[in-house]
Design a protein that fits this description.
alpha/beta, seven-stranded mixed sheet, elongated
Length: 316
Amino acid sequence: MRIFFAGTPQFSVPSLERLTSSGHTVCGVLTAPDKMAGRGNTVVSSPVKRFGLSKGLTVLTPMKLDEDFIESVRTLKPDILVVAAYGKIFKKEFLDVFPKGGINLHPSLLPRHRGPAPIPATIIAGDPTGGITVQKIALKMDSGDIFLQKEVPLEGTETAMELEGLFSQKGSRMLISVIDEIEAGTASSYVQDSEKATYCGLIKKEDGRVSWEEPASLIERKIRAYFPWPLAFTTFHGQHLVITRANIVHREEGKERMKPGYILGWDKNAGILVQTGKGILGLLRLQLQSKKEMDFLSFLNGHRDMVNDYLGEADV
């Protein structure tokens, strides 16, 4: 079949890579426009664009999916639209271009965690099981019928980066399986139970700010969910402090004696001990503003007086 692929981040690349060697024809690629980044305003292309151009594929980066763009896609004579993390909802006029319709790779167990950030949402919710879904593309976000779904048991230690890598590889194989079945006319699907749907929104940089009033268990999950972006952060003596790894020392402490954010001490195994709204969190790896990331012992060597001090809004 002639496949028109849409995707933008690194998560999308394994799917596009597998499609190019699948026996099908990738007739075109849709990805986000280049953007300016860094202090020098360097032009940065998406991972999908860079990969697509390296393979000699036709890559389109429109600002708007308007009539002219739709006509340019139509001239490519695609059979099916395949999407992996493109980030926009498609209109009917665009979907009508594809005789075989469209399919989407979504890294959650739909209908749970519909929306643009399902992997962080899975971690933050503390789900014991994550998963991957290949679904029909519908006009309403992530509501299409399900072709294929696979569960992935979670250990509760995974970061978003680790799950993205795992799900992108597993998902790419699932896409090929569904495409082959659609071509053979043997594909089947089932309707989602919308009453069980949950939703997640776009992640903003400010979402990474640690609220020490929250339970230690939730803060620890957010640290993993926001790695590598936007990263969990707090302040220490007014400086930006990123926390890249932590563990729960105590989930609950009867009546909390100290204000959340208070640095209780440190333990050679548990890390720097911080009081939260419920329980104690041990900080294992940190990165202070303009400094390198380091383990907690190295951090303590440069801040020997931090015990009995505060992090975050309680920072005094």
